[in-house]
Structures are given as structure tokens and as C-alpha cells.
Amino acid sequence: MHPVVKPALRRAWRDRQTVQFGMTSAHAVTVGPVDTATGSFLALLDGTRGLPLLREEARAMGLPDGRVDELVARLSAAGLIDDATGGGPGADALRSRTEVRDRLRPDLASLSVIHPAPGGGAQRLAARRAIRVQVRGAGRVGATIASVLAAGGVGRVEVLDGGCVEPWDVAPGGLPAQSVGDRRDVAARQLVRRSAPDRPPRATESGGSSAGGEPGLSLVIVAPRDGSAAYAPDPVAAEPWLRSGTPHLYAGVVEGTGVVGPLVLPGGSACAGCMALGRAERDPGWLRMLAQWGSGRPGPVPACDIALATSVAGLAAAHALSFLDGELPATTGVRWEAALPLLDWRRERMLPHSDCSCGASGHTEGEYTSGAAERQDTMAG
To answer: Average pLDDT for residues 16-33, to the nearest whole number?
Structure first.
């Protein structure tokens, strides 16, 4: 182990004997009392030394025997110590590729704060390389989500969409202006390739694959160009994911309203069918209007403000990465909405419906949390 005080957390002395690591309330930790010699020794915890060398240098500084191990254990218990060599073989492979490591350094710093165990952040960043995600939609929202996931280290990001790129599909972080007129699927594939810090791993590198040699889908993100299909998702379209147990997340912009969620855990949280049944009970005219909106010729260019679309894409990508890293984000069984011009994000829980065949009505939120812990234990093992 090569201990390093997590560099993402800023360090400051609150007084002569108390050190605070971190600025924000979400992750700040206060440690004390810390004497002058121990405070000076903290500078040596920079990841360049193993424990034997640290013990020698501590003795040279006049620190008593056992102080190094005690301090490292104390800081580790507080979530303040990372291991510069930890995370397993996958993390070692990332560290050996300087260009890739430098591209992902901010992501690693963030993960090291979120996951307190030494080497935990590096392990999760390395695990992303073996993950396969499918984004359905290559408009302002979907293409941007795909590029962010690829840039965040997800090894395989597929984008499904038809037709050709229109001028109004172009977005910063999404499809570029020079792709107008190209096939959407081809343009999105090129975007993902440019955004990724390195090439996707071969099937033999990824560990675990489907019969066709590709890893199974870890997540489907439904981000249609017409955001109404994210606001009122089609239960029939979701049936294959329910049958295969594939988690899926909805995101989009419809009529100047941004929508992120819900994240559907098949059999565990409300699905598109649950949402449709619940809405029909609350609004008897809903299904009739929905059928009218979905019939006839395609409507005009959607009202999809560029700033709102970018915000929705960023939030959806962040929730997706959180889920892929083993957490259950706040979109699990919940839809978040923000409408222009005030952009006040509002939360609406989507309840499983007892008449839906998905089987989620027998599950509770506590069971979701338990499942997240099990995924984390599996990764840590």
C-alpha cells in the first residue's frame, strides 16, 4: 500500500491542533488533535512511499513507533486515505497508460471522494471499461449523454437512432455541425469514439460477455429526439427490457420541460406500464389524448432549448454513472422535472401499480438500497 491523503479534498487548519479535509459539507472531515510533528508528517502521505519507508521517515522526525500505522488507520477509517497502487489489475492497466490516466484524473479524484475505501475509486473507474450501455436517441439530449458516458470511461456506448442529422440536432457536447446530413447512427458512433479517452476493450479484456462475445447491457437510456416518449414512455417498447431484466432510464425535453427519470429496475421499481396505469387513473382523458398526439404526421421541430437539453443530458449521464458504479441514484423510481423559465426541479415518485404485470408492486425502496449494497460488495470482492 502507498497511502495518499485524498488530493481532491482541500486541507486547512481550523486551529493549531485541528485539521479539516474538504470544503463542502457533503465530504468535509475534521481531524484532531494533531501535533506539529504529525502535521508535518502528513505531507509525506503523497502516494510515493510504502508503509516501511514511511515508518523510517517518521522515526527520523521523532515520531514514536506505531504512530504511522495508527495515523494511516485513523485517516482510512475517516475516508481520507487512498492507495496510489490500489484498485486491482484493471486500475494498474489504466495507470500504465499516461494519456488515458490524465484524461480520467478528475473522474478518479471524484470517485475517490465518493468511495472512501483505499483504491475504491480506481477500482470503479477501471470497472467502467467493461460496461456496455445503449442510448436510444441521437438528438440534443441523447447524443450528449452518449459522449459524456464515453468520456467518463464507459467502455462501450452504443447509440441507436434512424434518419440523418438535422441542423437542430447539433449541440455542444453532442453532434457537431459538420455531421448535418450524415446518418445519425454513424455520426453518433464517431462522436462516441472522439469522446472516449481510449478505444473500447476487446471482449477478451472486458471479462464476462454474452454469447455473441459482447458484454451484456448494463443500462439502456431512453432519450428520444421527441421528448414526449420520455415523458410518457411506451410500455410496449419497454417489454424486452423488462423480460431481460435490463435497467433503463428515461430522459428528454418536451415543450420546454426537462425530464430525467425514472430509472426502472425491472421487477423492483415502477415501469412504463405502471406509469401509464397510474396516469390513466388520475386523468381519465389521458390515454385518449395520448393516442391523438401519437397519431398522424410527425409534429414540428420540438421545443428543446439548448441549455435545458444540455442540463438534462448532464444530469441523466451523472445518474447513469452513479448507477453503473453501484449506487442507486435519486432517479430510482422517481422522475425529476424542470420547466422553463424558472427551472425549479420537482420530484415525482412513480409508484408501482398492482395491475401491472412487471411485479414491482411487491417491492419497497428499502429493497432497492439493499440491492445497491450487494452490487458494491460484489465489486469490492
So the answer is: 91
Q: Which domain holds residue 141?
A: 131-380
State the Cα angle at 298 between 296 and 300, rounded to 5°. Answer: 130
CB 253 within 8 Å of CB 305: yes
* Strands across the sheet containing 132-136: 156-160, 132-136, 217-222, 248-254, 257-264, 334-339, 346-349
Helix-helix angle 286-293:272-282, to 10 degrees: 120
Neighbours of 169 (CB within 10 A): 24
135-163: pLDDT as tens digits: 999 999 999 999 999 999 999 999 999 99
Cell matching residue 308: 435545458
| Residue 213 confidence (pLDDT) | 60
How many CB atoms sit inside 10 A of residue 357's CB? 12
Domain boundary among 99, 125, 151: 125
pLDDT over 70 percentage in the chain: 90
Strands (E), the chain: 3-5, 11-15, 18-21, 29-31, 81-83, 132-136, 156-160, 217-222, 248-254, 257-264, 334-339, 346-349
The last residue of one of the domains, among 60, 90, 125, is: 125
* Same domain flag for 216 and 332: yes
At 256, list the grid cell. Answer: 420546454
- How many structural domains comprise the chain? 2
